[in-house]
Amino acid sequence: MHEKSPLLKATVRDRVGSRYSERYRKQGKLPAVVYGHGREPLPIAIESKEALTLFYKGEKVFRLDFPGAKAADEMQMVLLKDVQFDYLGTNVVHADFARVDLNERVKTKVHVTLVGEAIGMKQAGAILMHPVTELVIECRVVDLPDHVEVNIASLELGETITADKVKLPQEDMKLITDGHAVVAQIVLGVELKTEEAAAVTADGATPEVITAKKAEEGAAGAKPAAGAKPAAGAKPAAGAAAKPAAGGAAKPGAGGAKK
Question: What is the mean pLDDT of residues 219-241?
Answer without folding.
Answer: 50
